[in-house]
Amino acid sequence: MRRNLVVGNWKMHGDMRSNEMLLNGIISGVQELHNADFVVCVPNPYLFQARALLEKTNIHWGGQNVNQHEEGAFTGAVAPHMLTDLGCTYVLLGHSERRNLFYETNLTAAARFDAAIKAGLTPILCVGETLAEHEAGLTEVIVASQMDAVMATLGEQDFAQAMAVNMVFAYEPVWAIGTGRTAMPDQAQAVHEFIRHRIARRNPDAAAKVRIIYGGSVKANNAESLFAMPDVDGGLIGGASLHAEEFVAICQATNSVTASTCLAELT
Ligand code: 13P
Fold this sequence. Notes:
single chain; TIM Barrel; binds 1,3-dihydroxyacetonephosphate
């Protein structure tokens, strides 16, 4: 049975004062929720602040990207050990904004994924198609190519390491990000199932364990129906993660879906 996961991606938002209010709001809202994992991926300058506020709570923190190199003359880049030094356990990789605005590729995503797992970070690999690709019926082709670019670089030992750190996939249709347009639950389910089958071709046990979360305009009012889908193991939340009440409501939706799933399995 997979444990659901809700990840807030703050993107380039926040300052010391607003972060403190937001994190305190999230802490008090999720402290009694024990059926799922919760993560906030904050801008790098605020990781220290996140650690100070979150280290004795049930909320994890992580980075929004990481470089594949361990150190060196890479101005502006952050190495995996720098994230782990600050207590990060998760890192987003291959987000569509990194791909589209910062020219990152499947190749860089693969290199970063490898560096992240070797550092003991849990990578959250984002995959998803653009609107044009969606309308052309290319969703599975695009998602498969983004997944394969990473999976193909993993030897058996790397794959075992990726499982040991509980790698996560995030399906984020680009046309749903920040647009208010979200995939319908059955649309998301179909792609999540496709992702799981693709992992099963490599390793069926891994496929059953890997968490696949959905991102793209997830809000408090649509979270529960998305999370109720059998292959949707939680969400990657952008805009709504910047509002404590909204984010907590999404965390509650995950928690209650997980709780009812457990109950259904027992009865
Ligand atoms: P929104 O929730 O704002 O659509 O953003 C989704 C996203 O990009 C999370 O990584």
